[in-house]
Amino acid sequence: MDKQEARIILNEEVAKLRLRSYRELRESLLREARNFGVEGPSGTPYQVEAQAFWDCGKDGPLRVFVSIDDGGWRGLVPMSESFILAPGESLVDE
After folding, report:
1. The CATH number of the domain where 28 resides is what?
2. pTM, 2 dp
3. 7 half-sphere exposure, CB direction, 13 A CA radius
4. CA 56 to CA 47: how far, in whole Å?
5. Taking 70 as the threshold, does the pLDDT of residue 43 lie above it?
6. Would you say residue 59 lies in a domain?
7. Is residue 90 domain-resident?
8. For residues 43 and 89, what is the distance between their CA atoms, to the nearest angstrom?
9. CA–CA separation, 18 vs 84, rounded Å?
10. What is the DSSP string of 1-40?
11. What is the pLDDT of residues 46-72, one digit of tens each?
């Protein structure tokens, strides 16, 4: 896996999710992970997964976790990023 290319794609996907509201993230990612494919500039196919979890109990902050891999051995330990969004729309620890 091209780590630089994967990091750029991962950061782009995280940035998109950071623009979404708490409600949107709760409704779209809390119950079920979202999996989709992305082709990098090099032509390498990547698998991206985004999912949200309660960080401090139900109806509290959401931890949004995004990971990427190329389907190879890296799928066992994907590159990942996360952020926490409070119900009031503020990012926690930023």
Report:
1. 3.30.1300
2. 0.87
3. 3
4. 28
5. yes
6. yes
7. no
8. 36
9. 9
10. --HHHHHHHHHHHHHHHHTS-HHHHHHHHSSS-EEEEEE-
11. 999 999 999 888 888 999 999 999 988
Domain membership of residue 94 (yes or no) is: no
Q: Which positions ≥6 away from 28 have C-beta within 8 Å?
A: 20, 34
Tell me whether residue 29 is exposed, middle or buried, using C-beta atoms within 10 angstroms of its C-beta: 0 to 12, 13 to 18, 19 or more: buried
**How many folded domains does the chain comprise?**
1
User: Which residue, among 89, 94, 9, 86, has the nearest Cα to 50 in the 3D structure?
Assistant: 9
Domain that holds residue 7: 3-85
Instruction: Please answer whether residues 42 and 9 qualify as being in contact, where contact means their C-beta atoms are separated by less than 8 angstroms.
Output: no
